[in-house]
Amino acid sequence: MSAVFALVIFPGGVFILLAGMLYEWVDRKLVARFQNRVGPRWFQPLADTVKLLAKEEVVPDGVNAQLFVVLPVIALAGALTAVLYVPVFGLAPSFSFSGDLIVTIYMLSLLTLCMGLAGANTLNRFSLLGATRTLTQLFSYEAPFLLALLGPAIVAGSWRISTIADYAAGHWLILTQPIGFAVALIGLMGKLELPPFDAPEAETEIVAGALTEYSGRGLALFHLGKGVELVVGLTLVAAFYLGGVTNPLWFAVKTLALLVGLAGVQTLLTRLRIDQTVGLWWRYGALLVLVQFLALILWEGVIA
Amino acid sequence: MNNPLEHTWQSVMDQLKTWARINSPWAIHFNSGSCNGCDIEILATLTPRYDMERFGVKLQGSPRHADILICTGPVTRQARERLIRIYEQMPEPKFVVAVGSCALTGGAFQGCYNVMGGIDQVIPVDAYIPGCPPRPEAIIDGLVKLLGSLKADGAPERASEPPLAASVLEPSS
Prior knowledge:
The complex is a heterodimer. By secondary structure, chain A is mainly alpha-helical. Chain A contains 12 helices and no strands. The longest helix of chain A has 32 residues, at 125-156. The longest helix of chain B has 20 residues, at 4-23. In chain B, helix 1 (4-23) runs antiparallel to helix 5 (136-153) and helix 2 (37-45) crosses helix 5 (136-153). Chain A binds chain B through residues 28, 32, 35-41, 43-44, 46-51, 54-58, 126, 203-204, 207-208, 211-216, 219, and chain B through 16-17, 19-21, 23-24, 26, 48, 51, 53-54, 56, 59-62, 64-65, 67, 89, 91-93.
């Protein structure tokens, strides 16, 4: 019974969808305020979602219709599954096993993968170009992001998220692993395709990227998945690096503080070209994280 | 529909849908032969000074994502098929706003050999915003009036019903 509750209501279902919309609104509102605008009203993401769900869904010619319909569902399902293994709202994860950190990270990647497939599925040239860029970006940020989240795992001596979160609750790992924190946060921005990493959906050059042909329900599900991923990603970073999220108040304060930082970066920087994105990740991101990794391993294995 | 409970459920869902449509109009902008005056005013409407995101308006690149087609300029014979194609790429329910004198009647270009006339000669138009060019305030007012007319019965009253049929797609000599 409690498993069903965790899947459908809290934290896996309705609750996380609403939280995702709330965080999306906070993000949009903050960006608007930074640009000296009024910004959207508080129910804006909800209205967008309901409207998209009530709209006609056009299945274009030349696509595999079954894949076209099922990909958004898989994407959202992946994001919702990831929620079950992270300490959302400062509570213990609903399910936990040894190595669930890896599962969570790959569940989060499922959304990006589905978007890439969705773009490659259609005949539209903009979708195809967006899909290529989405997958290129996936391959560039994924490794540094994973390495950045493995830093806390090494010092905690476990790949179980709840164990790492418990260890991190007593240690502000942002102080001992600042590079990992920065790379994890920027990796999260790459994952969510927020500016300056929005080359895959650059609306001024390639219409809407991989999701160009999606309308109505499919688009709504992809948007919801992104909202969920935003919450899960912020939770992971806050729990690992910012002294843990041990109660709902700390959860709200720390994740919202991170969101303010993300919104600031979004407003400050302009879009990077896709080759600049890849270059940034592989030349600097991955290398810096590896250096920190080496330092950690030396510290753990040799000195301590 | 005989079941009263089902009827209530249906009306609640309809109200929810109408509410969402009014509060989340995503727009796409198409220039079918304008002099760019109206386009600049539309861009000015989207700037932080007027901030259309207050009403939930987002400028979308893809017709598949948009609810409102904002058209400027008279329809030239070359742009007509593109305009019809973009209109048909948009998913239902969709609305068309004609911005500027030329989009209303053809304006200064009326009677030209290469001009069809106003937007409503080609696709059904839901709201007309006059002006040469209309101020951003006028564009916002037009959009708000269009959304207000949705509130009444879920569908705006159409001033015109042009013959959007296969015959339109064939080039007239």
